[in-house]
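Q: Predict the bound structure with DP6.
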Amino acid sequence: MGSELEKWVLMVTARTPTNIAVIKYWGKRDETLILPINDSISVTLDPSHLCTTTTVSVSPTFDHDRMWLNGKEISLQGGRFQSCLREIRARAQDVEDEKKGIKIKKEDWQKLHLHIASYNNFPTAAGLASSAAGLACLVFSLAKLMNLKEDNSQLSAIARQGSGSACRSLYGGFVKWDMGKEDNGSDSLAVQLADEKHWDELVIIIAVVSARQKETSSTSGMRDTVVTSALIEHRAKEVVPKRIVQMEDAIQKRDFPSFARLACTDSNQFHAVCLDTYPPIFYMNDTSHRIISCVEKWNRAEETPQVAYTFDAGPNAVMIARDRKTAALLLQRLLYNFPPQSDTDLDSYIIGDKSILQDAG
Ligand code: DP6
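A: Predicted complex:
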């Protein structure tokens, strides 16, 4: 480590976009390692609209690990944070910054403490996958700071232990989280199916129906589903494996009708298993249902579907338009039928392309 006068601070900043699943992850087979009961596929969003920016710093003057989220200090005591920190420290390498005259040996990382400041540019815990962007960014920035040699897929296995969906935010474009077979989770990783340029006509519009924090977290919701739903096993074993193959094919062929049908039916089935959970979980509200009707009516009136929709663990609608022209028409319809800040209970709209992970380091 540096000299006796150890006053230095070394820091890294990274920015990671969130991802939205088009074939959903819902249910774990291992709660600690966060191993899912089915594969899932997502699309990573444009970082300019929905992303987390995290600065991680290390200094010999820090006397314990600390973290701030949107300016407010939060506890790092949770098992998930600790798992990620432990896994990253175990893989840390020597770091040298010649300009600052700093030398950190890999064994020093066990003693040095970290300060982590994270900022979401969108509502936290409102069902817009904030934990996905947050944990992926934390792992990515710490991996840069500690000079890890692991590639993004190996880092995804660490991010997964922070929040399942986070593993898919380590890549841009279309990403699959392979559930894996091993009990130790070594093969439960994210892989990129296609990069962000592959199908770049797609435009994503998010209707923020409510920016309020959701009542049932994904973690506790999916735990209750696994224990009480009679439908979840059928979904995980019979339905999703077939949909994963079909979705991969639709993405490779840029087949929008198949993509839209699979994304919409999978979102609907995910909310059906939530309803089949006891006590039932209601993530969507009346506005969400009216948005579905509006899109379904439009798709049926055309020769082929124009827009896909999907809803995560909250009422906010994520819509994927087949091209820019359709996106403009969709926005027009939405603004007419669901004007923001009106009695429709809709807060705002976010419009973005798919995009790639950016290292602001
Ligand atoms: C509905 O990844 O937030 O968004 O692993 O317990 O942290 P934990 O859950 P989380 O669940 C996301 C659920 C979902 C579907 C998805 O992203 O695939």
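A: The first helix runs from residue 79 to 91.
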